[in-house]
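Example 3.2
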Amino acid sequence: METAILWHTGPLIDDVEIAQVHDLAAAAEREDGVAPLSEQPLLNLRDATDDVVHLLTWRAGELAGYAQVDKRGDAPSAELVVRPGHRRRGLGFHLLGSAADRAAEPPPTADDDAHGGLPSSRAEHDGEPAPAPLRVWAHGDLPAARGLAARAGYAVVRELLVLERPLGGPADHPTPTLPDGLRLRAFVPGQDDDAWVRANALAFAQHPEQGRLTVADLHARTREDWFDPAGLLLLERTTPAGPAELVGFVWTKIPTGQPDGAREGEIYVVGVVPAAQGEGLGRVLTAAGLAHLAAQGVTTAVLYVDGDNVPAVRTYERAGFTRRAVHVQYARTARGTTA
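Structure, written as tokens:
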């Protein structure tokens, strides 16, 4: 069967198309036990940027497959999902190949606008460096994803660990004692936005996704139904002579709609600016995040951390976290076939 894949840059056309992607992702999660699309691609569904490309294919009157290419950052990244009823027919392979083609296309130029918005030929961009190879996330490291990667010539280049630990009650997780000269307070929307973005950029300067967040990205997250400013705690260093300095933060996330007695919460982000690293503040912030989650009735805490971030992994293991799952990122190998 011929596979027709339609694509366009963001945002998606309307709420109907956005709902179709969410429905497809939910169907895959029910089948696989893991969400196929992470938070950022879902936020990108409404993001009006030419740096995000959406790829969609329909069969039998329903959205059968979806992929997204995000060209922001040092290398383009993609995530894709195929509806369970349409699997094992080559659809994932075709989506991956089309995503790689879109990632390899040069960005639009001012000359493209002069041509009526149509992209000019690749030859006109020959003076520009070639785009970095596409990287593709596979959530849960499922056998089907490994098979698709092998067929398309992709190999694992990055691991993202999912860690978890049970929580007792608030008495088991008291708010940690802070070193002298430090205070912990809740984020104030509209007041702390710029300071948080600056601190986050410093703390994650080498991180391919977290470190590039903008004020607009922050606002997109604060509009989500799970956001609670009381769950974003700012660690400040105080001085008698000047304003307090933001040196770290811990952001927690508690998804809505969970039953009492079985609530899961996330240590969403822990960041410490370089000037304050080496003082054990990551451990203090993690404890503060766990205390907040326990006070909200959360029974299980989870977090995500890069597998090669050895200091962070050790900090979380000392805090009682163990591995639940792993997400992997693939890139084409030197001997990879053409998808």
